[in-house]
Amino acid sequence: MLDPLTYLFGLEQIGIKFGLENISALVESLGHPERAFAVVHVAGTNGKGSVTAMVDAALRAAGRRSARYTSPHLIDIRERFVVGGRPVSADALADAIVHVRSHIDSLRAAGTLDVQPTFFEVTTAIAFELFRRAGTEIAVIEVGLGGRLDATNVVVPVASAITSIAFDHQQYLGRSLGEIAAEKAGIIKRGVPVAIGRLPPEADAVVERVAHERGAELIRAWDGVDLVRLKPDTTDAPDTRLEPDTTDAPDATDLPDRFGERIRIRTPARDYGEIDLALSGSHQIDNAVVAVRLLERLDVPAAAILDGLAHVSWPGRLELRRLAGGREAILDAAHNPAGAAALASYLQEACAHRLPLVFGAMRDKDIDGMFRALLPAVSAVVVTRASNPRSADPAMLAERARAIAPDVPVTVEPSARDALRAAWRLSPRVVVAGSIFLLGDVMREWDG
Question: Nearest CA to 281 among 295, 265, 260?
Fold first, then answer.
């Protein structure tokens, strides 16, 4: 028999398959592990992972035995299955894979399953099984893709959220914002409250209609909210500045001494005063508002919400990493035009000088849309290939970048390591974005 992880990763070759038939049969065979705990279900084009992490952190701060399921992972698949703030152990994961596989084999032998479930369907079943075994009280479950036909949509949550709606995965979700919204609104269950971020009018109308049809309370997260963005307090922050250098690179004042945001917020339910948010960028403030309103609906105390937002960890989202010798990289999981626009906005706001960009993307993404957002905010681009079969050809990326921004220098490097070295020759600080898989490659270079 194959090693459990070898078996699991071997399922990736099946690709994406929408529909709830496989996962429904599988969780029924397993005795419905997804019903062993309460669920918060989070969808959205961007921000759903951040909101999932924020809600989980606040639940843990409130003393709840919580878990979270997210995708994809950066380095280690165990990142997807977090219980009590820690990834599950390798042994626990291996045992759950073997258990779930045995049920799949039995279902296929009996003819109940006509085809092998996909990688995501199986990992979703594994998450439910792991969380049941861990005695989870409440799990925050991130939608993988879309919502209506996503494998996670077998859950019946106590609350749900739709963080944002923008163009991404149009080949699966639809060519208009209304069509995409209809897919994401598929997570709305009868009588279950749903918190939504600031959605485009076309998408908002669809979500409102679905919520009304299903008798679900619709919580527009920003309604009645008074929020002020404050200057972060850096008094006790570690000094992250570089020593002066003799290159033409940006000087040490170009980046804040600490990442994160400080806001003052009052909702219709509570006045929270000042909140320190561990994650950076105005888009994370939007995500925090959704998380706060969702947590209020779950009756989480204000002190726990404040603690969760202040201590949430969500790697690869405007994350500052540094190496010896003064080299730094801002890592961001921007992988669609809306995410790229959020990153560009942050760079233009926080950096007095433009930085070089290391970029890699999947070939099914809107690469032109990402470049149109990012290229005006960077000084140069080093394109490369992420270690994923769906990765776009760097030569094609370079061609598109040059066509969109002829004045921005573009170079091509074969690997993340080579791309980082090339970018650091231009500046001790660089930006890495375009694909979560590229971020994983870069982090492995760090750890190696």
Answer: 260
